[in-house]
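User: Show me a protein chain along with its predicted structure.
Assistant: Here is one chain, sequence first, then structure tokens.
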Amino acid sequence: MEMKLAENIRRFRKERSLTQEQLAEVLNVTAGAVYKWEAGLSVPDIGLIIEMADFFDTSVDALLGYTLRDNHVDAIVKRLQEYRRKKDREGLAEAEKALKRYPHSFPIVRESATIYRAFGIESKDKAMLRRALELLEQSRLLLDQNTDPEINEQTICVMIAETYLGLNEVDKGIELMKKSNAGGLFSSKIGNTLAQIDRAEEAAPYLSEAMAKLTADLCNIVSGYMNVFGQQRDYASAEAILSWSVDVFSGLHKDGKPNFLDKVSSAFLAAKAQVQFESGREDAARETLTEAKKLAVFFDASPSYDESDIRFMSRIEGASVHDDIGVTAMDAVQSVVDEYEKEAFTALWNSIKEGEKNQ
């Protein structure tokens, strides 16, 4: 609840063109009392508030000027998130109020834990981090209330683990992250933490697994954005993200050998050529298709699906690479061309293909 009594007394008085002395005379108080009310140094008793409201021809609620905040769970959680985003430590007091109001609410307990954890890590305040741990453990017991698909016991356990790291209880934190690392979701955090405490050999497999996951995610992200931008006819953005991804993948060559990302890049280059062709830049499309053909031939001459042939990666036990873009890199390029279903573009690709065959 926020009250604006002081400024409202002043506002109502001025609206009626009264001095502080004149208002004081109406209410049978001193001018000094009115001054203190308007300065927020004191508050009139309830009888005088009622009398003023009557004099100003308004309600007590309006004179007090309070706004009753929405104190439903969702509204409180959003306020706490806003405090955290603004790095406003008033959010800590708000969290404690919320916990008193809703001590057994999963969203309140978890968001309160999050705000304590955020400020505790920033300021290296162990008391805040201990409070965060207490609340995170409590949130695990309330997890059956959770409706957010992005939150589960795994993500909460990692928050607990990271809080242990903030408390310099590194071994506890690492072991808990390892136990929560289904699907390699937290391999990058584990690898980075191990590397920071000079456990390089133990860190390397986790970092390699994280790199493999990152490249797989990047392929999906770029492909998704390519389709989004295509539907929006934002050809400049489509071309930009495809060019960027090919540049990133080219930096992952090891010893000049082909790797699986060359096959992906061949398909992305064909898609980039399609975007250029759609934009009316046939010469640029020809140049890009030629580049796609060259890279596809390079890969198909000695195809590799071994993740250890990609820079910064080592062999991952039990892993294998599969895709649905074609048996060969040339098949992948052809698939992109065929999906475009534009005769002139197909003819351009065929001329590049046949021209190089005959050279």
